[in-house]
Each structure stands twice: as structure tokens, then as C-alpha cells.
Design a protein that fits this description.
Blueprint: E1 4-7, E2 10-12, E3 18-24, E4 33-39, E5 46-52, E6 58-60, E7 68-73, E8 78-83, E9 92-99, E10 111-112, E11 116-120
Parallel strand pairs: 2-11
Antiparallel strand pairs: 1-3, 3-8, 4-5, 4-9, 5-6, 7-8, 9-10, 9-11
Amino acid sequence: QVQLLESGGGSVQPGGSLRLSCTPSRRPYSREVFGWFRQAPGKEREFVALIRSTGRSSLYADSVKGRFTISRDNPQNIVYLQMDALKVEDTAVYYCAVASQYTTSHPSYDYWGQGTQVTVAS
């Protein structure tokens, strides 16, 4: 079991930046993967980015590649999602999740945070 606590959401104008944080309740196992997903009203939950618990490998959705950066602070046991050049279409609830395999498929993630709202509007 692991609880995930997200923070850092808020409102920002297009072109702005936000940094989301995800703090797990325990140290991850070496095989575990942290993912960020998002869900806009009336839309399916979609993959945003993932990183291995070791921090050695990451993957991004095409829609955020070059604008978002996922990272892991191992000493502090925090996973970050730095979001730059935000667009209106990035507006969604963002979720942190943990899986035991390297996958972008949200049903494969076993543990989820409560979500944090990101709103991009002028």
C-alpha cells in the first residue's frame, strides 16, 4: 500500500508555469514507476508522463513533450512535474499514480492520489 499526496495545482495564464509535487507515504520499490495523468471534464483520463523510481528513465505524452519535465528527488522522496509554456488545453485535474510496471496505461496503475486542479486561462 502507498498513499500519494499531490500539491502545486492552481490557476495560471497561458504561457505560464506550475510545478506539481507528489509525495508517497513510503519509499518506492525499485521496480515501481510513478506516473502523472490528467482528466479534463467530459474526457478520458490520459497519460502525461512517467518516471522509474530510480529516476533513470522517463516518458512523455506527445502533447506535453518539450514543455513538461518529470523528475524525482530521491533524498526527499518526491516526484515533480514541472509544467512550462502551459496551454488552455492543459486544464485538467492532474493525478499522481504508482504502478509495478513501465506502462502508460492508467488501468495498470495500482495507487492514485486525490488529484490537483490545474486551470490555464487568460
